[in-house]
């Protein structure tokens, strides 16, 4: 099997109706594979997600930097570097959720829970920008280690749960299954002003449980800030099979929800909508054009191949994301909720 040169450029897709052949590159075709292996239990799915992030986090850092989430390119700034676009998304979430970016000097520091924090990019941004005390949780022990190292910049060993000073704020990182956060944060000081979750909830098998837990750990008046991936309403089976199933399988997702599904979960536990939901699919879809270009390296595909079918299905899912955005079957939305 001969590898394509690292300078191979991906075929561009810009709209609806492109064939799967047009969405491939010579490199991706070498590793064409059926969909990811089916998971028989939700615990098995969680274990595969943890393994994926333990193995792949260094690659994410090298490809995308410290922020492992979409960028946001408003129509007025279509050519922003991806790093600025990623910060734009964070600022959009703050705006959508009506969170002041300049807290009053006399106010106590905001306490923020960043759920599915990855390697801590958003946690660090919020600590610096809002002078906040941020707790990041992730299911991946590797991500916890990386987040601590990136936050401190030294080889100092911080135990789980110990805060790391960061400008006017501070951060800490804990390895934790997010579905257990309601039973983990039970003390009198374990209430938060903000629960932040960006592109993580789609991984959770019990999404309704997350909304209940978020409500329980929020202070009265606290905000739930949310960005995620969704399937469109009313898809045909053909549309689902072509666009959504490859994303679910390749990205290790349980069944995806619609935007309205999340809103209903929130309302059922007593949260009130304060912003959105806002569909920003067109403003974020460039993320996957960039991603598809970045992964055209034989070394990355070889690493994915060494991880079995899950690894290759993950990279192949990138083109499904592009196709889903082009067809409108796959969506990205932001929203904010408040606890009365």
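-> sequence recovered:
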């Amino acid at each position: 099997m001969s590898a394509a040169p690292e300078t191979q450029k991906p075929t561009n897709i810009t709209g609806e109706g492109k064939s799967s052949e047009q969405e491939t590159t010579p490199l991706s075709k070498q590793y064409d594979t059926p969909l990811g292996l089916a998971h028989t239990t939700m615990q098995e799915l969680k274990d595969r997600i943890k393994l994926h992030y333990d193995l792949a986090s260094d690659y994410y850092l090298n490809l995308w930097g410290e922020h492992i989430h979409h960028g946001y390119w408003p129509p007025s700034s279509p050519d922003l570097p991806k790093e600025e676009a990623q910060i734009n998304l964070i600022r959009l979430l703050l705006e959508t959720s009506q969170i002041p970016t300049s807290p009053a000097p006399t106010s106590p520091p905001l306490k923020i829970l960043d759920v599915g924090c990855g390697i801590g990019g958003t946690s660090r941004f919020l600590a610096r920008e809002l002078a906040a005390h941020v707790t990041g949780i992730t299911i991946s022990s590797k991500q916890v280690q990386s987040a601590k190292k990136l936050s401190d910049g030294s080889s100092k060993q911080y135990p789980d749960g110990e805060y790391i000073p960061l400008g006017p704020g501070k951060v800490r990182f804990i390895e934790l299954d997010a579905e257990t956060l309601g039973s983990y944060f039970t003390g009198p000081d374990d209430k938060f002003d903000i629960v932040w979750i960006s592109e993580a909830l789609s991984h959770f098998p019990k999404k309704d449980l997350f909304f209940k837990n978020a409500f329980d750990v929020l202070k009265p008046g606290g905000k739930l800030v949310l960005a995620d991936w969704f399937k469109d309403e009313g898809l045909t089976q053909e549309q689902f099979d072509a666009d959504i199933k490859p994303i679910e399988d390749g990205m290790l997702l349980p069944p995806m929800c619609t935007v309205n599904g999340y809103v209903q979960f929130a309302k059922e536990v007593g949260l009130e909508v304060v912003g959105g939901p806002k569909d920003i699919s067109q403003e974020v879809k460039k993320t996957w054009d960039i991603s598809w270009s970045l992964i055209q390296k034989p070394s990355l595909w070889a690493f994915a191949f060494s991880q079995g079918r899950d690894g290759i299905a993950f990279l192949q899912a990138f083109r499904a994301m592009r196709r889903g955005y082009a067809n409108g079957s796959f969506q990205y939305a932001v929203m904010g909720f408040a606890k009365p």
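Residues 1-22, 26-37 have pLDDT under 50 and may be disordered.
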